Amino acid sequence: MSPHRFLRLGASLYVPAVRTDLSPIVNGHKVRDLRSLIVCTEDAVRSDELPRALDHIASALACIEPSDTLRFVRVRGPEVLRALLTMPGVGHLDGFVLPKVTPRNLGEYLALLPPSGPHQLMVTLETAEVFDPTEMRAMARTLAEHRVLSARIGGNDLLGLLGLRRARGATIYDTPIGRTIADLVTTFRPLGVNLTAPVYDGVDRDGTLEREVALDLAMGLFGKTAIHPSQVGRIEALYKVRADDLRAAESVLDRAAPAVFLVGDRMCEPSTQSRWAELTVARAAIYGVD
């Protein structure tokens, strides 16, 4: 299994499971060329709507078609995951997103899914434990052991815990959560756990989304939740790799490369930059070169 498989996620479109057109969305008839899709039964669904949401998912699974799109369901809790695993066609899903995961409730989810099963897992970091370095170190070790696909940062939930909402035109890095993201990066990334960037909750065209995605990448976050199809292409356009970065990455990975050298006006050092170079070359193969 590729250590860079998370690169295929791109911009993950969130879709509430209560939508009456869920089946055509899941089958790619409504929104085309998605790299990944997450059907949500949690925050996007009221508690009284859950039975209807599960009926919609069951109907979609009954007529699911082959697709290159990675398709996930964000469950509401272990009981919803248990119900989904009994549905015909569930094997056609690529995996599940687990909400509000902590070191204490993760085991209940993992017990329902065999390690050698067909489904990939993503967990969402969006509870008060995220602000506790000890809790996050424990979480990072567990996720690395179980080789989860990615840990998704729930920016809106974390802001909600602080009683905040980002101001218009502000990136997530302009809020107190920016410092939290930096802490998560230095906790999870050394263990090989990818972090997926929080949602940008506007569909405006003022450039804030693009500024935020550039900062996501600078922070080492890859993949981002999209709340509207119009965000998908805008996010993934920034996942293209600069031609000079690709040239540097390929030079770093050259086995004949010296210990230190210049590409253009920047120093390259294979002993410290090989991991960056591998990710850069893999990303360019998927998203292209700008």
Summarize the SSE layout with pairings:
Layout: E1 11-16, H1 22-26, E2 36-40, H2 50-62, E3 70-74, H3 78-85, E4 95-98, H4 106-110, E5 120-125, H5 133-146, E6 150-153, H6 155-161, H7 177-188, E7 195-196, H8 208-219, E8 224-226, H9 229-237, H10 243-253, E9 261-263, E10 266-268, H11 270-287
Parallel strand pairs: 1-2, 1-8, 2-3, 3-4, 4-5, 5-6, 6-7
Antiparallel strand pairs: 9-10
Structural write-up:
With 290 residues, the protein is an alpha/beta fold. It has 2 domains: 5-239, TIM Barrel, CATH 3.20.20; 244-287, no CATH class. The protein has 11 helices and 10 strands. The strands form 2 sheets. The protein has an 8-stranded parallel β-sheet, with helices on one face. A two-stranded antiparallel ribbon has the order 9-10. Strand 1 (11-16), helix 1 (22-26) and strand 2 form a beta-alpha-beta unit. It is globular, with a radius of gyration of 19 Å. The mean pLDDT is 96.
Task: Identify the notable features of this structure and list them briefly.
290 residues; alpha/beta; TIM Barrel; 2 domains; 8-stranded parallel sheet; two-stranded antiparallel sheet; 11 helices; 14% strand; globular
Q: Outline of this structure?
A:
By secondary structure, this protein is of the alpha/beta class.
Number of helical runs? 11
Low-confidence stretches: none
Strand fraction: 5-15%
Q: Tell me the total number of β-strands.
A: 10
Oligomer state of the chains in this structure: single chain
* Overall 3D shape: globular
